Amino acid sequence: MSRFNLIDEKWIPVRFPGGTHDDLGLRDTLLRSSEIAAIEAPSPLVVAALYRFLLAVLYRALKGPTDIDQAKTLFKEGLSGDKINAYLKKWRDRFWLFDEKYPFYQLQSYTPKIWQTWPAMTAEHNAKNAKVLFDHVDTSEVGSISSNRAALWLIACQTFALGGGNSDFQYTKSAPSATAVMALPLGINLHDTLILSLVPENRDIFQLDIPIWERDSESLQVLQQGHDRSIVGWVDLYTWRTRSIRFNFNPRDEEKTVREMAFASGIGCLSKNHVDPMVSYRIDDKRGKIPIQFRERGLWRDFDSLLPDESNLAPLVIEHATALTRSNRERFPRSVIVLGQSNKKAKIEYWRMERFTLPEVLAGERFIRTEIRQLLSEAEDAQKSLWSASSSYAQDLLSRGGRKSTKEDIKGFVKQMAVDSYYWSFLESRFHEILREYTFERDPEDIRCQWLKSVRDTLRAAWKQHSASVSTGDAWSIRALVKAEAPVLRKLKELNDEIQKLEPRKEDV
């Protein structure tokens, strides 16, 4: 019995321009995309996975784009409702969440040794690798979830599952881009967001680039023995079968809910240097080109990695979006969201979504990646003086009474001081303001001068705050403070000298 067709049923969470929210089916989400502001869900992983799923559908429905000319035509004419309707009609039978032959994104022939409860496929509720504070789901008594929630987590799991555990089949492996930061330029509505992210794919590759729902699933025997292969193209990548899943559906259940599921390893990825259009990269001396990942310090300190230049390391979706909108700056994406998760030894540490302004000048011919990198480097250099002063202060305090302190002791002491977190948290807000300054009218040296003043003022305020907390202490602490502040004072002088060099230029303009 076929139940819950993703084309018609309401399951994709969207936000409209007025701020209202609703769930829509696949067809309505695509056909009404110009009325929708964005995909919006509590989980960043669900949001990223849904965008990739929608893009995969569009690549197949629109049969492209396979070159920049097709992309420009699409940008000008918009999404074809006729093509979308025809495609969804043709493949309607492959979008049933519950089906006796082709359950969506599942392996119908798989009957597990032990049925697992639904949290096994979720990052939010899976106690095995990511128990979250205030998550009160008892994985042994979870009850059932609705079909629409099951569909969301099914897609997110295939996109972000982490390897590192045994299963009925083989040792599990991670999804191809499971730990990479994914970027998406946001257009004026969902319609533009999707069009701007449809990066042209080579025509020869496109002919072979098939999504999971258009192909017959791998045989149970093949998956049990372990099956690895290379990525064909972006549609294949966006719909990768990372896990072999099957919902245990009770046909007598009128509510169409999911309680149990089969859950095992899926397809391993052999492609080591594949390019994900949503991912930015950096060059590692030993490993070559590797994806940018979330770190504790915040992605804003690596923001330059999102900006296009001759290095071809920025996300292709941002390069494509800026190239398309040079002819129509009103549709330039004013912001970009970055989404993903951080892991350690196959354990999810956190998932995150951040939003940044995309500098307006990207819509022209000017590359500003180097300029942004310079601003961030200047902030890093100033922080080094703060760290040096803090370390000196910590060493003097820890050596009181003749005690010998280790580097780890000093490092631990400095980490618990508020000075470093104050510095970076305040500068982060200033950085978001600076990005909005990159308009066609502004002089880049003027912007740099403004940024250096922010760095100087923040450095001074951070050390002043620490000094105030010590000023009421004993003589030993005060002596340690006075001795330690030399690197900060020296850096403040350097920043003042550089600002004075830039200010006359500002006055001349």
Describe this structure as you would to a colleague.
The chain has helices at 26-31, 44-62, 68-77, 81-90, 147-160, 190-196, 203-208, 220-225, 234-238, 316-324, 369-398, 407-415, 419-435, 444-470, 475-484, 486-508; strands at 3-5, 12-15, 21-24, 38-39, 96-98, 116-117, 145-146, 182-186, 227-229, 243-247, 257-258, 260-265, 267-269, 281-284, 288-291, 335-344, 347-357. The model is unreliable at 131-136 (pLDDT under 50). It has 509 residues and is α+β, with helices and mostly antiparallel strands. It has three domains: 3-269, no CATH class; 281-363, no CATH class; 369-508, Orthogonal Bundle (Topoisomerase I, Chain A, domain 4). The chain contains 16 helices and 17 strands. The strands form seven sheets. The chain has a three-stranded antiparallel beta sheet with strand order 3-2-4.
Task: Give a quick precis of the structure.
The protein is an alpha+beta fold and about 500 residues long. About 40% of the residues lie in helices and about 15% in strands.
Task: Name the descriptors.
509 residues; three-stranded antiparallel sheet; 16 helices; alpha+beta; 17 strands; Topoisomerase I, Chain A, domain 4; globular
Give the structural class.
alpha+beta
Sheet bearing the most strands, described?
3 strands, antiparallel
Number of strands: 17
The N- to C-terminal Cα distance equals 73 Å
Rounded mean pLDDT is 91
Main sheet: strand order: 3-2-4
Shape: globular
* Radius of gyration over C-alpha positions, nearest whole angstrom: 26 Å
Domain module tally: 3
Strand content: 5-15%
Helix content: 40-55%
Poorly predicted regions are: 131-136
Structure annotation, total helices: 16
